[in-house]
Amino acid sequence: MSRVFRVRIILPTINEEKNISRVISQLHKHGYTDIIVVDGHSTDNTVECARQLGAKVICQKGKGKGNALRQGFEDSRFDFDAVIILDADGSMAPRELSLFVDTIKKGADVVKGSRFIGNGGSKDFSLLRRVGNTILTTTFNLLFLTRYTDLCYGYMAFSKKAINELLPVLNSDGFEIETEICARSNLLGMSIREVPSFEYPRYSGVSNLNAFRDGTKIMGVILKMFTDNVRKQKNEINT
């Protein structure tokens, strides 16, 4: 009898009462029942809705998406063969999860959704976000010698190995966590694959992301990690 391949879904939330039940129900429909909600001190009924549908809920200790994901990784690092992160607003389709899981099973350490390959796309991409994403992705690829097509998209899957190696080195608290994950994964020599993904408008409400503010933070992370890596390489040469 073959061993069960265990998959956990991490949903960072803050005031997603109008969306969370629908997202969790869709995950159940596609066979994913091990779900952890890391809640950032919601003031609505997000937590109650998640618990009613059987999700494990933990209260975020800090603030920001990155902080929530790191807490979710810590809770998931030992018991799961794959850990997948997606947003709790309905913009990322649970029916695509099988593609992420299959790619992990084939040996990838990190699987990243891309709206710019295959049948990927978006119905929720403003001109400002598109231009910013292009600038950030191009800058990242030039500095780190990578070939990402979609840096600023948070639909991602990780092997157990990836979670255990990334967790000690991740520091970001905000939306820039996704960029740090890409950089750290590359610097650690992990096997990284992109798969097509289609982004939909959120079911309800307004995103917490601010394109200019968070884009500036992401660029800061890119430049800092690049300069830190150059400095590290120089020190290794000199020792």
Structure write-up:
This protein is of the alpha/beta class. It has one domain: Alpha-Beta Complex (Spore Coat Polysaccharide Biosynthesis Protein SpsA, Chain A), CATH 3.90.550. Helices cover 44% and strands 16% of the residues. Strands 3-2-1-4-7-5-8 form a 7-stranded mixed β-sheet, sandwiched between helices. The chain has a two-stranded parallel ribbon with strand order 6-9. Strand 1, helix 1 and strand 2 form a beta-alpha-beta unit. Helix 1 packs parallel to helix 2, helix 5 runs parallel beside helix 8 and helix 7 packs parallel to helix 8. The longest helix is centred in the last third of the chain and has 28 residues. The termini are far apart.
Structural class: alpha/beta
The count of domains is: 1
| CATH-defined superfamily | Spore Coat Polysaccharide Biosynthesis Protein SpsA, Chain A
What separation lies between the terminal Cα atoms? 52 Å
The biggest sheet, with number of strands, parallel, antiparallel or mixed sense and barrel status, is:
7 strands, mixed
Query: Mean of residue pLDDT?
Result: 94
- The appropriate CATH architecture is Alpha-Beta Complex
> What share of the residues lie within helices?
40-55%
Please tally the β strands and state the result.
9
Strand content: 15-25%
Low-confidence stretches: none
Structure annotation, total helices: 8
Question: Rough shape?
Answer: globular
CATH topology: Spore Coat Polysaccharide Biosynthesis Protein SpsA, Chain A
Radius of gyration: 17 Å
Q: In CATH's first tier, which class applies? A: Alpha Beta
For the largest sheet, list the strands in their spatial order.
3-2-1-4-7-5-8
Give the SSE string.
EHEHEHEHEEHEHHEEH
